[in-house]
Amino acid sequence: MTADSPAGRQHAFLERATADLDPPFAALDLDALDANARDLVARAAGKPVRVASKSVRCRDVLRRVLAGPGFAGVLAYSLPEALWLAGGDDPVSTDVVVGYPSVDRAALRALAGDEQAASRITLMVDSADHLDLLDDVVPPGRRPELRVCLDVDASLRSAGGRLHVGVRRSPLHTPDDAVALARLVLARPGVRLTGLMAYEAQIAGVQDAPAGRPLRGLAVRGLQAVSARELAARRAAVVAAVTAVAPLEFVNGGGTGSLERTAAEDAVTEVAAGSGLYSPALFDGYRAFTGRPATFFAVPVTRLPAPGVVTVAGGGWIASGPPGADRLPPPTYPAGLRWFPTEGVGEVQTPLRGPGTEGLRVGDRVWFRHAKAGEVCEHVDALHTVSGGELVGSVPTYRGEGRAFG
């Protein structure tokens, strides 16, 4: 990284813009955010992009993105969150799909007691159990009609189930599975089938060109190609079968890593994306696109324990998912820093080594990127916003607004 490279310039303006702030804090590069948003829209090729809120976790950022062309609606990760985003006279969105089934009885009662919210929020279901729970919480005669969406499993499975590539989400896998539940929804008073979702995590959320691992990249690309062909045919068959029973308002699919593939499917009416807005470290290794890192967190150097070693306060903002080095936040600026394998990143301190330690003194900053997107917002009350090399303000995260959604 040189001073006149894009990364070098970004490091310099982050340092300059936040010089008066005491770390730890998180910063959001609005110029990078806006560029990433434009890229997502271009990759969606005319299909609307529903914003995955779990990858953003900041209402101001959600509003900024939704105000731009090509974006429509929110894919929330919990019903309490959806009620918050869709509620009131100034909602973040009047079209919020809850991406996961909810068994939060208090939230379900709140939804059933609010006709406006019920018209704006779509619940996710994948079995009759979810319909039974709704009826148990608030019987059909005592609630407005609730919108529901079928969650169809998008993983790649072999006959007999010996091979399973993808996440384990829904029991609905075949057209017959989806139609059977669609018929149950149609037969139930108090619910209306409005949509269908199938999220291909094994394509959208797995790097196909991981740095320094060419053989893994080759294997991932091969599996993803097989999975994409299988899913495109099966998703089309599922949608055709379900729409023969009931019309659908939307068919959602995809994620940041699969927008082009998913948007190309005629059966899909909209795509979802969120991580690509912040472009965290886990999204560096894709061949189809290159994002601009937009979120960073800064921590101070507190010790110089040995030549070539610095210790920073905290740093252990570890991402969810399978345990591994790729879930740790990489030290990014200055370039040339790495953590010790025997210590990793710590709760209260993190020692770092490498050529990037040269010139660092007690009180200087080290900038990290989170491995995932929205999870960084669980650690801070605000994102300090920078644009054009200047600090332009700050926006509260969900945490900063006193909200935490499991």
TrEMBL record:
Gene Ontology BP annotations: D-serine catabolic process
What the entry lists under SUPFAM superfamilies is as follows:
PLP-binding barrel (SSF51419)
List residues of the Alanine racemase N-terminal domain: 29-278
Q: Which InterPro entries match?
A: Ala_racemase_N (IPR001608), D-amino_acid_metab_enzyme (IPR051466), PLP-binding_barrel (IPR029066)
Q: Which domain of life is it from?
A: Bacteria
Q: Which GO terms describe its molecular function?
A: D-serine ammonia-lyase activity
Pfam family for this entry, one:
Ala_racemase_N
- For this entry, the protein name equals Amino acid deaminase/aldolase
